[in-house]
Design goal:
Elements (H helix, E strand, L loop, with lengths): L2 E7 L5 H12 L8 E6 L8 H10 L4 E6 L7 H9 L20 E4 L7 H11 L9 E9 L5 H20 L3 E8 L3 H10 L3 E6 L6 H10 L6 E2 L9 H18 L2
Parallel strand pairs: 1-2, 1-3, 3-4, 5-6, 5-7, 7-8
Helix pairs in contact: 4-5, 4-8
Organism: Paenibacillus jilunlii
InterPro entries: CbiX-like (IPR002762), Sirohydro_Cobaltochel/CbiX (IPR050963)
Pfam families: CbiX
Length: 255
């Protein structure tokens, strides 16, 4: 058995977005001889998922540990990629994504969801905005999903994550809003009516269109604090990836 690591994220035309993922991957300390590929679902030519699979298999990898670098198990991409890799028999939602050509065994990991490391990362990015935590609400904003089953997973993960952030921050309250179905504006309005300052934290991997354009547009005219800082860059993200990999390597060793 020769394991290898395939880290999959969405991809972007924005080169800064891609470079932030690459930088996080470059800080992994997984030991010599363990080949790592960072691939993207779309938009990054020459570095798509099939490219990553091919490079790992060309290096003699027999078991591919896949880390889906997405913020929620409610993402339909997490589901369709698992299916296209052959790690599940059928997708929960119909997809245009065709099956990849994979000879190696695929071991599919978990997305971020409500991991404690992620709560620390969010608070680190927000800390500078907090002035009076006893009357502040931290509002996590995620992409969300309109699809049944996926929406509930989004809600479950982000609500649990918000509570983790509240506990480590000392803020009076924490809540979440989703862009799909849209609840972001109404949540800010609600907490302002309660007399709270609202600190808005985007639950996105890297800065892009949603953090720079969509969220500010949805909240236009409201009073809130927002830096637009995303999970990356942050030294804890490589740590999160390493933890997932080590757990899965241990499981492989026990088989």
């Amino acid at each position: 058995m020769k394991p290898g690591i395939l880290i999959i994220s969405h991809g972007s035309r924005d080169k800064t977005w891609v470079s932030m993922v690459d930088e996080a991957v470059s800080h992994l300390t997984l030991g010599e001889g363990l080949k790592v590929e960072a691939s993207f679902l779309e938009l990054v030519e020459g570095r798509l998922i099939q490219d990553g699979i091919d490079r790992l298999e060309d290096a003699g990898v027999t078991d591919i540990i896949v880390i889906p670098l997405f913020v929620s198990s409610g993402s339909t991409h997490v589901d369709e990629i698992e299916y296209a890799l052959g790690a599940k028999a059928a997708p929960e939602k119909e997809t245009d994504l065709e099956r990849f050509a994979v000879k190696a065994k695929v071991h599919y990991g978990y997305p971020v969801d409500d991991d404690p490391d992620i709560a620390v990362m969010i608070w680190d990015k927000l800390r500078g905005l907090s002035k009076h935590p006893e009357r502040e609400t931290i509002l996590l904003v995620g992409h969300g999903s309109r699809h049944e089953g996926f929406r509930q997973r989004w809600q479950q993960g982000i609500s649990s994550l918000a509570e983790r952030v509240r506990r480590i921050s000392g803020a009076a309250a924490a809540d979440y809003g989703l862009l799909n179905p849209d609840s972001v504006r109404s949540k800010v309005e609600y907490w302002r009516e309660q007399g709270h300052e609202v600190l808005v934290a985007p639950l996105f991997l890297s800065e892009g269109y949603f953090t720079k354009v969509v969220i500010p547009e949805r909240l236009q005219g409201l009073e809130y604090a927002y830096s637009g800082q995303t999970l990356l860059p942050h030294p804890l993200l490589p740590h999160w990836i390493e933890r997932q990999v080590k757990i899965m390597l241990e499981q492989l060793g026990e088989r």
